[in-house]
């Protein structure tokens, strides 16, 4: 049963922060996040997805908070649900390990998290020593928040289950 659940999930990343790949190993980060997701699958009622695939889309961007989109995106032709997570990447004025600002003083176009669409989380930049550590820990926090709150899918709540 676990193998079926593992094949049912994926992780993809969007990079709206130019040059992020020069500062972190996004491939390694994606693997670590996927390993974490696989570890929590027994606690999630994946069978209620009726065989559809679940993809976590982590979008690294210039924003104020970590945001977990409150609803799934649905892609019926692919039989896929997507959970969207907005992940702010700090600049070097917000955290010592942050990205250097571009010539215009920004690391990307600023898009604030809207609490009517996202479950917001404080990025807590001060808790981490480097960008890789921050990204992995923040992705885990966001995933846990999403499955604690749950996602409604055709009348069923996909969330952590009591073990």
Output mean pLDDT.
88
Number of helices: 3
What gap, in angstroms, lies between the N and C termini? Answer: 16 Å
Low-pLDDT sequence parts: none
The string of secondary-structure elements, in order, is HEHEEEEEHEE
Shape: globular
Q: Can you offer a commentary on this structure?
A:
- This protein has 163 residues and is α/β, with parallel strands linked by helices.
- The chain is 25% helix and 26% strand.
- The chain has three helices and eight strands; from the N terminus they run αβαβββββαββ.
- The protein has helices at residues 2-7, 26-40, 131-149, and strands at 9-15, 53-61, 66-69, 73-75, 80-88, 118-121, 151-153, 156-158.
- Strand 7 and strand 8 (156-158) form a beta hairpin.
- The longest helix has 19 residues, at 131-149.
- The radius of gyration is 16 Å and the shape is globular.
- The model has no long low-confidence stretch (mean pLDDT 88).
- InterPro entries: Imm9 (IPR028963).
- Pfam families: Imm9.
Question: Can I get a quick summary?
Answer:
It contains three helices and eight strands, in the order αβαβββββαββ.
